[in-house]
Write a structure and sequence with these properties.
The complex is a heterodimer of chains A (460) and B (576).
Chain A: E1 7-8, E2 11-15, E3 18-22, E4 32-36, E5 42-51, E6 54-59, E7 71-74, E8 80-83, E9 90-93, E10 109-112, E11 117-118, E12 123-124, E13 129-131, H1 135-140, E14 143-144, E15 151-153, H2 159-169, E16 171-172, E17 179-188, H3 190-203, E18 209-215, H4 220-240, E19 244-250, H5 252-265, H6 279-287, E20 291-293, E21 299-307, H7 316-324, E22 327-330, H8 333-337, E23 350-351, H9 354-357, H10 367-391, H11 398-415, H12 425-436, H13 449-455
Parallel strand pairs in A: 9-18, 15-21, 15-22, 17-18, 17-19, 19-21
Antiparallel strand pairs in A: 1-7, 2-3, 3-6, 4-5, 4-7, 5-6, 8-10, 12-20, 13-14, 13-16, 20-21, 22-23
Helix pairs in contact in A: 4-5, 10-11, 10-12, 11-12
Chain B: E1 4-11, E2 14-18, E3 26-30, E4 35-43, E5 46-51, E6 63-70, E7 72-75, E8 83-84, H1 91-98, E9 101-102, E10 117-121, E11 128-129, E12 134-140, E13 143-148, E14 156-161, E15 164-166, E16 171-175, E17 178-181, E18 184-187, E19 196-197, H2 209-214, E20 222-226, H3 233-243, E21 248-256, H4 258-270, E22 284-290, H5 295-313, E23 318-324, H6 326-339, H7 353-362, E24 365-368, E25 374-383, H8 393-399, E26 404-405, H9 410-414, E27 427-428, H10 431-441, H11 446-470, H12 477-494, H13 508-530, H14 535-539, H15 543-550, H16 556-573
Parallel strand pairs in B: 8-22, 20-25, 20-26, 21-22, 21-23, 23-25
Antiparallel strand pairs in B: 1-2, 1-6, 2-5, 3-4, 3-6, 4-5, 7-18, 10-12, 10-15, 11-14, 12-13, 14-16, 16-17, 19-24, 24-25, 26-27
Classes of the chains: A alpha/beta (460), B alpha+beta (576).
Chain lengths: 460, 576
């Protein structure tokens, strides 16, 4: 162990968020560091590279004001987060300090923020439905406890409203389940911060939530810590307290920008589009903290939100995310321009774990059939729009015309819903059946006959 | 030669040590906690080590020990049913030792060293044996695990051979003065030797219609499944693992999602082996290294899996090795290479990417093993091209090596057409080599039938372009029929539900029957058209609904017979 009372005044170089210290005793990789400035103020940091000659420290709050006379103290341990059940109902900063004017958190325990990997053998497969109250998600891209299902958005789309709506409406069905939301905002503007704080308080959603807000003008290094603090809190609630925890993280793109900024400051060899080569592993270390553990009651479900730069789904951030998460909800500018909220494009959305959380005993027996049929009919109807643009509606057959109309009605009634409208899964499925009445029976090929007889509304 | 040294520098998973003078790829133990690592670069007195575990808190000055051996796996009875991480640590034992999370510094041997196995000798005292030859067997679940003479022993006399119950470390035979236990060690980065590699001319039967009939893979061949995320790649690979006719399945989850790995881990033990009726797990080895587990172990995981696969091939078994995904493996290489500050090649991947990929795929083969039996390792490697862009380096380098390409398609997924293998862009280069086998084992006209189906689908694609322009009403009648027949091929034959209890596995004779019936419909429709029946009636016969549904019925083969009878009578009623 290094002598933790020892202070070094041997800073040899300062560059970006990094401070280089020489002639130290052996220092551990990722060890925490305190830096005392000449004016007496303190900064915190972490060891990024430790060798016999030089130690590189990444300073969380930025290096402005640090000079070569600052003294550096190594704390002999890696970063920990105090956790407590009393965090519910609190709004915290990106570094975990109260923003709501309340008292400091009295910790029940302290946890390493990096989090170890869950042993795949200890994982339990996700199989319980979470209702978000949004038809396109519940009905067609069902979210399941322990899943990580990102929302792919773009600038100008209402992803923050959707995030709030989900945070407000999400519920697990079943008796005696405690539900909590951990809301992690990264790199948001002050205006957005005000909106989030106000909305959480106004709607009463705050009482079951812990909110972390890292602002756009907070240092980049803090942004890389915020989700880890939030997830550490979520793990404590899920696997120690047995709660069903939904973690909403917005905006992952800001997080990745921070990674890139730090990577560049460290003069690393950049990967695609300048993002660090380890971004995949780094994102996996966030996303893979979702899940369930055998023999534990709680679960962590994640909805990370990311805005695709330029709406490009092949950009490294959505691309790498998509490989780690279990599906994606894609927002569409076209729907948004047509005034449809939430502008969820079901055709390119997918929930990979939907099968495990739907059907008899979970949602309803006809769920899969309804979902498949909605997908198929909507896809065919959308294709016909292209054709109609060329040859006109008149040349369509009667059947095709029904599909074409179906696509319009689907967007208008099934996709569209109010920001305060909370639909139960039964309402969603019944709405689907109502739409099927516009089709010929012959066109309903994805649902077995017994469900058609049971659920199809009878025509007068 | 010194084996003890100290850490000089720690930067993430890359540790620099001094004082050891290792060979390249020697395994070393790093730090007070003895973390496992591998020497990947030697610069003067400095050895650069990639560490398989988290290095947080490790300090310069801590000790480093060189084991003097390269990264090896333990091979012997007990491999089957195992679930390992990338460096052959059994995950269930890790859980017992350290709970639900994987912390570092825990070592666990790949095989159980205390369990006793019944060894039945097949060689006798006085026999002269060489490396790879079988000297005895152990019954391991449904599989006869053959104990082979370790590599390196040639023309040696069996001086003593025992029979009875032994642990894997106990001597079962003495050969040429050497005590031979059941366990063997093999360095994972070196291919195991065979006596002769064959031309692949037997298909790997998978029960998936689109693969077996349209794009078959030969035993000992290699196939790539590229697909952007969300195209159903993982599902396809899992059904392959479940239903292909290889005796042994090695499944490498390399950088996989934790939840999907769990699905594999929970489903495999529950799955009934279609042939033995026992749990599929009994002939499976799973390797799970999820994306958040240490990157260096991910890099090693494909070699660990391949070595285990080769070991079973050497006993004369057919092994199917699934690697999901090789892109994650390539990314691990890239990440480590960038930590080493190597000069990056295309898109930041190391310049040796192509070399490593071909070395890996070259280990797939059908071969005469040293024991004299034929065995094979077929590799099905998933690649995950960023944004579905097939021109990226990992996909391109893979396609240069493999001969089968199962193209997954996002568009098909949007239409809920599963498996999402695109029939127009996929290919197999084994067609010609496998033709003889199909003729002999399925039906003489099977290759011709397949060619007809492919042609019909191709025709459909061409007609669709016309339909896009002018609408389907303006097509001549016979082309309308062609479109409907192609639709039948797609919906009845190509679409298959991996989760359906009946449809999940379709034996070759049934595949043949289904395709024959579609062809029959086509022929009858053509005749009916000539004799003046209305095209609308021809393509909308009630039998189509029954045909569509037939594959989901429990008595599917009877249903198909019923479909044929209906078809005959309904066409007859049309007056054809």
């Amino acid at each position: 162990m290094a002598d933790i009372s020892k202070e070094y005044k041997t800073i040899s170089q300062i560059a970006g968020p990094l401070v280089y210290v020489k002639n130290t005793e052996p220092v551990g990789y990722k060890e925490m560091v305190n830096i005392r400035l000449s004016d007496g103020s303190m900064r915190r940091g972490q060891v990024l590279d430790s060798s016999g000659d030089i130690v590189v420290v990444q300073v969380f709050e930025g290096t402005s004001g640090i000079d070569k006379d600052a003294s550096v103290r190594f704390l002999g341990e890696t970063m920990k987060m105090p956790v407590s059940k009393d965090m519910l109902g609190r709004i915290l900063s990106g570094s975990g300090k109260p923003l709501d004017g309340g008292a400091d958190i009295v910790p029940e325990d302290e946890r390493e923020i990096l989090g170890a990997a869950i042993n795949p053998w200890a994982r339990d497969s996700p199989s319980d439905f979470i209702q978000t109250g949004i038809s396109t998600i519940d009905g067609m891209n069902t979210l399941v406890r322990g899943q990580k299902l990102p929302i792919f958005s773009a600038s100008g789309l209402p992803h923050n409203e959707i995030a709030l709506q989900i945070a407000r409406q999400a519920k697990v069905r079943g008796e005696n389940e405690e539900f909590a939301v951990v809301f992690i905002a990264m790199g948001i503007t002050n205006e957005e911060k005000q909106m989030f704080m106000k909305e959480f308080e106004r709607t009463g959603a705050l009482k079951n939530a812990v909110v972390f807000l890292n602002l756009a003008d907070d240092p980049a290094v803090e942004r890389t810590l915020t989700p880890r603090l939030g997830l550490t809190t979520a793990e404590y609630m899920a696997f120690d307290l047995g709660m069903q925890v939904l973690v909403i993280m917005t905006d992952i793109t800001n997080y990745c920008e921070a990674l890139r900024q730090i990577g560049a400051a460290r003069e690393e060899v950049p990967g695609r589009r300048g993002y660090p080569g380890y971004m995949y592993t780094d994102l996996a270390q966030l996303y893979e903290r979702a899940g369930r553990i055998k023999g534990k009651k709680g679960s962590i479900t994640q909805i990370p939100i990311l805005s695709m730069p330029g709406g490009d789904i092949t950009h490294p951030i959505p691309d790498l995310s998509g490989y780690i998460t279990e599906g994606q909800i894609v927002l569409s500018m076209d729907l948004h321009r047509n005034g449809i909220y939430p502008p969820i494009n079901v055709s390119s959305s997918l929930s990979r774990l939907m099968g495990g959380g739907t059907g008899e005993g979970k949602t309803r027996e006809d769920h899969k059939g309804v979902s498949d049929q909605l997908y198929a009919a909507y896809a065919e109807g959308k294709d016909l729009r292209g054709l109609v643009a060329i040859v006109g509606k008149d040349s369509l057959s009667e059947m095709d015309r029904k599909l074409l109309d179906f696509a319009d009605v689907f967007e208008d009634r099934f996709v569209r819903q109010g920001p305060e409208e909370d639909r139960s899964i039964e309402q969603t499925l019944d709405l689907g059946w109502e739409l099927f009445t516009n089709l010929d029976l012959e066109q309903i090929t994805k649902i077995s006959r017994k469900y058609i007889e049971k659920y199809m509304p009878k025509k007068e | 030669m010194s084996t003890e040294g100290v850490i000089y520098r720690v930067a993430g998973p890359v540790v620099t040590a001094t004082g050891i003078s290792p060979k390249m790829y020697d395994v070393v133990h790093v730090g007070n906690e003895q973390l496992m690592g591998e020497v990947i670069k030697i610069v003067g007195e400095y050895s650069i080590i990639q560490v398989y575990e988290d290095t947080d808190g490790i300090k310069p000055g801590e000790p480093v020990t060189n084991t003097g051996r390269p990264l090896s796996v333990e091979l012997g009875p007990g491999l089957l049913t195992s679930v390992y991480d990338g460096i052959q640590r059994p995950l269930p034992i890790l859980r017992e030792k350290m709970g639900d999370y994987i912390y570092r510094g825990v070592s666990a041997p790949g095989l159980d060293h205390s369990k006793k196995w019944d060894f039945v000798p097949t060689a006798k005292t006085g026999d002269v044996v060489s490396e790879g030859e079988v000297i005895g067997t152990v019954q391991e679940g449904p599989i006869v695990h053959k104990i082979m003479v370790p590599i390196g022993i040639k023309n040696a006399k069996v001086e003593n051979i025992k029979s009875g119950s032994f642990t894997i470390d106990e001597t079962v035979a003495t050969i040429g003065g050497k005590d031979v236990p059941m366990v063997q060690y093999w360095p994972v980065r070196n291919p195991r030797p065979v006596s002769e590699k064959y031309q692949p001319d037997i298909p790997l039967v998978t029960g998936l219609r689109v693969l077996d009939t349209m794009f078959p893979l030969a035993k000992g061949g290699a196939a790539a499944i590229p697909g952007a995320f969300g195209t159903g790649k993982t599902v396809t690979q899992q059904s392959l693992a479940k239903y292909s006719d290889a005796e042994i399945v090695v499944y490498i989850g390399c950088g996989e999602r934790g939840n999907e790995m769990t699905e594999v881990l929970t489903e495999f033990p529950e799955l009934k082996d279609p042939r033995t009726g026992e749990s599929l797990m009994k002939r499976t080895v799973l390797i799970a290294n999820t994306s958040n587990m240490p990157v260096a172990a991910r890099e090693a995981s494909v070699y660990t899996g391949m070595t285990i696969a080769e070991y079973f091939r050497d006993m004369g078994y057919n092994v199917a090795l699934m690697a999901d995904s090789t892109s994650r493996w390539a990314e691990a290489m890239r990440e480590i290479s960038s930590r080493l500050e190597e000069m990056p090649g295309e898109e930041g991947y190391p310049a040796y990417l192509a070399g490593r990929l071909s070395e890996f795929y070259e280990r797939a083969a059908r071969a005469k093993a040293l024991c004299g039996l034929d065995g094979s390792v077929s590799v099905i490697g998933a690649v995950s091209p960023p944004g579905g862009d097939l021109s990226e380096p990992v996909t391109q380098n893979t396609l240069r090596i493999v001969r089968v390409f199962w193209a997954l398609d996002t568009k098909l997924r949007e239409r809920r057409h599963f498996p999402t293998i695109n029939w127009l862009t996929s290919y197999t280069m084994y067609d010609r080599q496998l033709q003889a086998w199909f003729k002999q084992n399925v039906a003489d006209d099977f290759p011709a039938l397949k060619a007809w189906a492919m042609k019909t689908l191709q025709k459909e694609a061409e007609l669709q372009e016309v339909v896009q322009m002018v609408g389907s009403d303006s097509l001549p009648d016979e082309q309308k029929v062609t479109l409907e027949i192609a639709k039948m091929i797609r919906e009845i034959f190509l679409q298959q539900n991996a989760y359906h209890p009946v449809d999940c596995y379709c034996p070759l004779p049934r595949q043949y029957k289904m395709l024959t019936l579609i062809k029959k419909y086509s022929d009858l429709a053509e005749k009916a058209l000539v004799s003046g029946a209305q095209v609308d009636k021809i393509v909308h016969l009630p039998v189509r609904t029954r045909f569509n549904q037939s594959k989901y019925e429990e008595n599917v083969d009877e249903e198909l017979a019923g479909v044929e009878a209906d078809m005959d009578s309904q066409f007859a009623a049309l007056g054809a």
